[in-house]
Specification:
Layout (H helix, E strand, L loop, with lengths): L11 E8 L9 H19 L4 E3 L3 E4 L2 E13 L2 E12 L18 H5 L5 H22 L2 H10 L6 E5 L4 E9 L5 E5 L4 E4 L3 E4 L3
Antiparallel strand pairs: 1-5, 2-3, 3-4, 4-5, 6-7, 6-10, 7-8, 8-9
Helix pairs in contact: 1-3, 1-4
Length: about 200
């Protein structure tokens, strides 16, 4: 879709985690949201930087992207064999490391926190948070993870524009449903679940 992630050698974090969920394929979106919570919490604990989550898979600092998450699933006979959660973090980039066209939309943890990030410590923190949250998810389901996500979300409560493959509309993001879809209350006061699509923030 024309999206780019810019991260020079030695200044970012690129990692993949293999997950083997028991949940059916249509619920794997929940794992993207779980991973977002883990990364957001790890950045706060390891680097002291408070970020928020843009549904479904971006981590932002003051509206600028610092991390992207991509989940891919392998299936067999309609069952999920495994999922790969790919995480890309702009860790130690300086402003000059970003192309000029990205400086208004992307930043790094180093810029946000004013100091160099220990990438090894951050990775360890992400792994620790993933372990805790994945155990919680397997034992208690998606609801407690959804509550954590909503608390860290920069999307909930915002006026958004939604662009899906079939539709385009505006409304207020209100939270998540039990599947992990974003709930948006449209101009007709209808609560619409968004399972995939682009979310843009209205600024006015």
């Amino acid at each position: 879709m024309g999206r780019k992630f810019h991260s020079p050698r030695g200044k970012g974090i690129w990692m993949s985690l293999v997950l083997r969920p028991k949940q059916p394929l249509h619920l794997t979106q929940q794992l993207t949201l779980l991973t977002g919570v883990a990364v957001c919490r790890a950045i706060a604990k390891s680097a002291g930087v408070q970020t928020d989550i843009k549904w479904p898979n971006d981590i932002l600092y003051q509206g600028k992207k610092v991390c992207g998450i991509l989940l891919e699933s392998a299936t067999e006979d309609e069952r999920v064999r495994y999922c790969i959660a790919g995480i890309g973090i702009s860790a130690n980039l300086k402003e000059a490391d970003f192309p000029e066209e990205l400086r208004n939309v992307a930043t790094s943890i180093r810029i946000a926190g004013g100091k160099t990030v220990n990438r090894t410590s951050l990775i360890q923190s992400i792994m620790s948070e993933m372990e805790v949250l994945y155990e919680l998810y397997n034992e208690e389901g998606f609801e407690p993870v959804a509550s954590l996500w909503e608390a860290l979300s920069g999307t909930v409560g915002r006026e958004v524009q939604v662009q899906t493959a079939r539709d385009r509309f505006s409304g207020i993001a209100t939270g998540l449903n039990q599947d992990g879809a974003l709930l948006v209350r449209n101009q007709h006061d209808e609560l619409v679940p968004v399972y995939s699509g682009d979310i843009l923030f209205n600024t006015r």
